[in-house]
Design a protein that fits this description.
This protein has 172 residues and is of the alpha/beta class. The protein is built from 4 helices and 8 strands; from the N terminus they run βββαββααβαββ. It has a 5-stranded mixed beta sheet. It has a 3-stranded antiparallel beta sheet with strand order 1-2-8, with no helix packed on it.
Length: 172
């Protein structure tokens, strides 16, 4: 199964990366699921990895438009753990992945000069008692900045409408 393609879905969102780029749904990698995760006692993973020039993007997606958050772990802590485990998993994949595409993708990402972290979060546009807009993006970004500053001192928290100019993908 090829892991490098330009269009990926996560829940109700479709991410489109530039053609001929290296973009992959990391949490579906054979190496992550069959080699890395079991060995490390239940590691976590971000949703997407994407190489763009000298930048490796790690993208975690949260969509709270249909279902509110029910996990007990704080969202910044959950994301930080996924980032940490993904970086370790990429090192492992670059050295030991059985799937050739995954191994090459990991190596390309690890050759990048910079790692950028993005939390793509969708929330209900209208506040309601059932689906409140409980997460303030600026607060989440600040907490992430503290937790993962050694990996990315400026993590981004975005939604479909606030992607930045250096984020060369689209989301529908």
């Amino acid at each position: 199964m090829a892991v490098i393609q330009s269009v990926w879905t996560e829940g109700a969102l479709t991410f489109t990366f530039p053609n001929n780029s290296i973009a992959s749904k990391y949490d579906h990698w054979s190496h992550y699921r069959n080699q890395f995760q079991p060995t490390c006692g239940g590691s976590k993973a971000v949703d997407f990895v994407y190489a763009d020039g000298d930048v490796a993007w790690l993208i975690e997606v949260k969509d709270f438009r249909q279902h509110k958050r029910t996990k007990t772990i704080d969202l910044p802590d959950e994301i930080a753990i996924k980032v940490r485990d993904t970086v370790a998993g990429l090192v492992s994949a670059g050295l030991h992945a059985n799937d050739h595409d995954e191994k090459n993708c990991a190596k390309q990402l690890l050759r990048s000069g910079k790692i950028r972290i993005v939390c793509h979060i969708e929330q209900p546009l209208k506040h309601s008692r059932l689906f409140p807009r409980a997460i303030k993006p600026s607060d989440l970004a600040l907490k992430l900045r503290i937790l993962i500053k050694a990996i990315d001192p400026h993590p981004a928290v975005v939604d479909r409408h606030t992607l930045r100019a250096n984020m060369t993908w689209t989301v529908q």
